[in-house]
Amino acid sequence: MGRIVILTGAGISAESGLGTFRDEGGLWARHRIEDVATPEGFARDPALVHRFYNIRRAQAAAARPNAAHAALARLEAESSDVVTLVTQNVDDLHRRAGSHHVLQMHGRLAGALCDVCGHQWEAPPEMDEETPCPACHRAAARPDVVWFGEYPHYMEEIAALLAEARIFAAIGTSGQVYPAAAFVEDARAAGAETVELSLEPTAVSHLFDHCHSGPATETVPRWVESLLG
User: Fold this and answer.
1) 3-class DSSP assignment, residue 220
2) What is annotated as the active site (predicted)?
């Protein structure tokens, strides 16, 4: 029995209708990252940030897992290896598809976080600057997502997983945003076989042993079938 570590990014959820940073005309295209995805932006205009994430939360709730999510859930269920998903995504599509070993390094759209006491709870469908924390009762609720300038979750656990990986795969991610961008090099240093599955080649494709280009709903089920077959 070995260990398979899979990093997923926005590209795996794009075919479920959830936009990426790069989508023209999408939600992200209408806002500056500095305004809606940084602690400073939240401090300047919490109402704007809450409106932005209320829309994202509704979009994620309406989305459905696609064939790529389902294939990874099947891999976890049927593989003789231990499969762990490390996702940069804040949606819950991996879990809804049936995956259990999921580390959401950038947090959860479905979660709320108190900006004062740090309490975490399940977010209501909509929040605003008056939403109280159920623990300290301050009006200090924010989305429980990791913004630019904040430290991702589970980094020590992820480092330990990469050090033990037999296979490391990156799916639907540009591989250019740190610290996740370093995962392939960490896995290679530990002797893992490395695989990239992306819509098209990326700036870091040369770091992988194998690269598969195309829609995630096609490349991921085919790759999973090759592992299980």
Assistant:
1) helix
2) 106 (proton acceptor)
pLDDT of residue 178: 83
- Binding residue ranges for substrate: 53, 56
Binding site members for NAD(+)? 9-28, 88-91, 172-174, 216
User: What does pTM read for this prediction?
Assistant: 0.93
Predicted pLDDT of residue 58: 94
- Annotated catalytic residues are 106
pLDDT in the model for residue 22 = 55
Annotation: binding site:
9-28, 53, 56, 88-91, 114, 117, 133, 136, 172-174, 216
The CATH classification number of 21-62+109-145 equals: 3.30.1600.10
DSSP of 65-84: --HHHHHHHHHHHH-SSEEE
Give the pLDDT of residue 1: 73
What CATH code would you report for 1-18+65-106+152-229? 3.40.50.1220
Residues in the chain, pLDDT under 70: 19-29
The domain limits of the chain are 1-18+65-106+152-229, 21-62+109-145
Region label for 9, one of left (φ > 0), alpha (ψ between -120 and 50) or beta (otherwise): beta
What are the helix and strand counts (H, E) for the chain?
8, 9
